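Intended use. Records such as the 2-isopropylmalate synthase entry shown here are meant for training and evaluating sequence-to-structure methods. They are not intended to support clinical decisions.
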Amino acid sequence: MTRKIAIFDTTLRDGEQSPGASMNTEEKLVVARELIRMKVDVIEAGFPISSPGDFKSVAEIGRLAGDDCVVCGLTRAVDRDIEVAAEALATAKRPRIHTGLGVSPSHLRDKLRLTEDQAVERAVHAVRYAKSFVDDVEFYAEDAGRADIPFLVRIIQAAVDAGATVVNIPDTTGYNLPWDFGARIRSLVENVRGIEDVTVSVHTHNDLGMATALAMEAVRNGASQIECTINGLGERAGNTAMEEVVMAIRMHGEELDAHTGVDTRELTRASRLVSSITGINVQPNKAIVGANAFAHSSGIHQDGVLKARDTYEIIDPADVGAGGSQIILSARSGHAALRHRYEELGYAFTDAEFEPVYEAFLEVADKKKEVYDGDLESIVNERNRADEAIWTLDAVQISCGFPLTPTATLTLIGEDGNRITEVAYGTGPVDAVYKAVDKVVGVGCDLSEFSVKAVTRGIDALGEVTVRVTGGDGEVYIGRGSDGDIIVSSCRAYLNALNRLIADKRERA
Ligand SMILES: CC(=O)SCCNC(=O)CCNC(=O)[C@H](O)C(C)(C)COP(=O)(O)OP(=O)(O)OC[C@H]1O[C@@H](n2cnc3c(N)ncnc32)[C@H](O)[C@@H]1OP(=O)(O)O
Ligand SMILES: CC(C)C(=O)C(=O)O
């Protein structure tokens, strides 16, 4: 059996320190319920002395959690902070006070203005004072990543001797390289007496984009608790993302001799919940929970994933509650992906039928970022209309705007393959195009309806135009056309209606 690594979630404390991420008590309770459901080991619920609202959140989450997990409140190494935290945690069945102070030369000299001896004295006092309220006391050595290692060993030894149950080694400024941070943890594991009886926690920040790597290297060197947040929220560039460390441990459990108790299938839901409550979007390419984490948009990858998912996916999306892999159709997609999607939509093509569809798809895809199902249907419908066509559009050009007179120059191809070009003026660009069509086709009819709608979402959506025309004998014909350019869609729709009218006339003649 591998070692259990405790997951200490600090979304509601350090995560909330992200600018713009503050949450009220109700919102924190919603997140806490999700954290309990996903079986984290510890919830850091807030910093009780910082405001009455945070005090209330810690108290309410303490009540909510019951036996399910430890609930923790943060303090400075200040008596009043510790007293207030103890008061807030009185509702909790498994309370933990998290106290400590900065230990790097910069924090000691410039922020706290303490000598090393004074800092050790203050740490010992804070741990002992916290122990007078609760059994479970975690000591943090803030900015341990930049501390002198002999002093770090000394102050952690003092905290352990004073009764700390957990010692937290933060790389507060995300300064370390993973192997240097690992060596720090190893120094403590090898040099602090009694450390084997306490939990060694790490709390890493992402200032160099290495928070997860730092945490993994710490686990490899003896850490047994990771402090992290959903979506990597937290001060500045954020904290270690829970979804990343939990999945990295799951993927490499044997090598790390580690496992966690987190239900990974909740990771996506938790990510979306925190994003919607805080209003902070998750970047699409974010590991594990980003919208693109299991999306494939290039032909070679799509072909591979359709043959065997693990050619390009190391995680089964279902394992993190993300549903399934996604194939995104774009101009980089190949035949395999397009054919697969059409089959899912119920279309079957022979190879000969499929080739022109693929070419029409590429034409649309080159104009759009992403091709949606509605576009695919439109492409097929447009092709079917083209197959039946008597007159087809070869080219259309419009000149319009204020104060120009809208003018259309249009070329149509007839059944015999001949091209005919006409120019016409109109009250608007569509009117000008329709007048030019009338000149070429020479069929009398009334346009009784014209409507346009976007086939899919986005500014680059295909526009589908529907028209109704009434022929001389009162018969009504509907025409449709779609394209990224609505003048072209309008022209195609009108031609489609006229083609039907002409075909009908011929049939009846
Ligand atoms: C790395 C981290 O994420 S630490 C957690 C950060 N979280 C927060 O700061 C929570 C929100 N903070 C607050 O609500 C307030 O800052 C409070 C209530 C904590 C303190 O408020 P104030 O008393 O007004 O102090 P202020 O914020 O101006 O300054 C912080 C003081 O705490 C001291 N201090 C900072 N950390 C510690 C510590 N761990 N132990 C003891 N003292 C500390 C500072 O040196 C400074 O003291 P000084 O005024 O004597 O120079
Ligand atoms: C208070 C400590 C644990 C912290 O948030 C940090 O060092 O980043």
